[in-house]
C-alpha cells in the first residue's frame, strides 16, 4: 500500500519529489521528458542505436502489447488506491510531463520500464545489469518529472518484475518472445 495520507512516510515521499525537482538539470529534464514516452526503444542507450522500431518490428509489437496489458493492470491498482499525484498534493511541484487525472500508485511507467528491463535482460543477458539499471532510471524519471512519488515507482517496478516473471512462463507468450529475442539479438 502507499503511505497513509499525512503520515511521516507520505511526507518523506513528497519531500523526495520536492528534492528531485530542486535538483533538476537540463540533462535530467531531457531524460524525464524523453522517458515519458512508453516505448522499449528508450533502451537503445544500452542496446545501441541499431535497436530501433524500423529494425525490430516484432520486438516493437511484442512490447506494445506488454505495455497495453501493463497499463490495464496499473489502471486497476490506481483506481483502487486513488493516491493523488504529487503536483495535486503540493501546487509548488511543477510536472515536466503531461498531467494525469488517474492515481499515482503504482507508477505504470515504472511498471513498464522494469517489465521491459527484465524481458530484455533475458533476451540479451550480457547486458542484463545495464538494462535493469536503465529500467530503474525509466521509473525514477517519473519522480524527476514531478508526477510520481518514490513509493509509486518502487511499487510499479515490483509489479513490473512480477509481470515479466509471469510472461516468461506463459506458453502463449513464448513464440512471440522468441521471435522478438532473435530479432533484438540481430
Report on the structure:
Helix content is 67%, strand content 0%. The termini are far apart. The protein contains nine helices and no strands.
Instruction: List how many beta strands DSSP finds.
Output: 0
Shape: globular
Query: How many strands, which pairing sense, and closed or not: the largest β-sheet?
Result: none
**Assembly type:** single chain
* Total of helices: 9
Low-confidence stretches: none
The N- and C-terminal alpha carbons lie at a distance of: 41 Å
What would the average pLDDT be, to the nearest integer? 96
Helix content: 55-70%
Question: Any idea what the radius of gyration is?
Answer: 16 Å
Q: Which secondary-structure class do the elements indicate?
A: mainly alpha
Classify the beta-strand content into a percent band.
under 5%
What is the H/E string? HHHHHHHHH
Structure characteristics:
single chain, mainly alpha, 186 residues
Please give a quick description of this structure:
The chain is mostly helical and 186 residues long.
Task: Give the helix/strand layout.
Blueprint: H1 8-22, H2 26-34, H3 44-47, H4 57-81, H5 86-89, H6 108-123, H7 128-144, H8 150-169, H9 171-185
Helix pairs in contact: 2-7, 4-6, 4-9, 6-7, 6-8, 7-8
